[in-house]
Amino acid sequence: MSQIPLKKRGKLGKNLQREMEQSSMMIQSRCSIGEDGQLQPMVDMQWGKETGCLNVDEAIKHGLVFLEAAIASLTDTLLMKLFIEEIGMESDTVFSLLREYREYRNKNFTSNDKHTQKAIGYLLKSEKEQTEQFLTQFLQDMEIEEAAINAVIANLGILDQLQDIVENEELDLDEK
């Protein structure tokens, strides 16, 4: 059985500080062999008072959705920090840029539907490529100097680090 403590969502306040409170709610998951006498691999989940059961394919798809959201969150946070802390842009302008980038990402970024370690690496690579393309065009449109654009793109190296971690891990997702 796996348990993940769930935190309440923080409010984005001044100076981009998040106020997080620990919640007593846990997300629990455990492997199962089905119900009603049917021997099938299943994943039981409990989130607060809600319970559910997913087949293996559904559980993997949900896991990939969480992974995609985590990758997008890392990218969004990195962009916010770069534009506010490194370039010195106003937070309102950066939030506008972030909304624009998210629309672009949602329109252009599609994940591979295979449940493999290779697919997870693909998600990371595609996210980085989409981010680089969007940022380069956006910064050129703002008439930012080429050296500054290159510095911003170079700071996306955290996505390369994530890809290396995923590709070098012994995740046994290929044998479904």
Describe this structure in words.
With 176 residues, the protein is α+β, with helices and mostly antiparallel strands. It has two domains: 2-14 and 26-55, no CATH class; 58-168, no CATH class. Helix content is 54%, strand content 16%. The chain has helices spanning 56-86, 91-108, 117-141, 146-154, 157-168, and strands spanning 2-7, 22-32, 42-47, 50-55. A four-stranded antiparallel beta sheet has the order 1-2-3-4. β3 (42-47) and β4 form a beta hairpin. α3 packs antiparallel against α4 (146-154) and α3 (117-141) packs antiparallel against α5 (157-168).
**What is the topology, as strand order, of the major beta sheet?**
1-2-3-4
> Over the alpha carbons, how many angstroms does the gyration radius reach?
20 Å
Uncertain runs? 10-24, 170-176
> What kind of assembly state do the chains in view correspond to?
single chain
Could you tell me the strand content as a percent range? 15-25%
Helix content: 40-55%
User: What number is the mean pLDDT?
Assistant: 69
End-to-end separation: 20 Å
Count of domain modules: 2
Largest sheet: 4 strands, antiparallel
Going by helix content, strand content and strand pairing, the class is: alpha+beta
H/I helix tally: 5
Order of SSEs:
EEEEHHHHH
Secondary structure tally: strands: 4
Could you say which overall geometry the principal axes of the C-alpha atoms support?
elongated
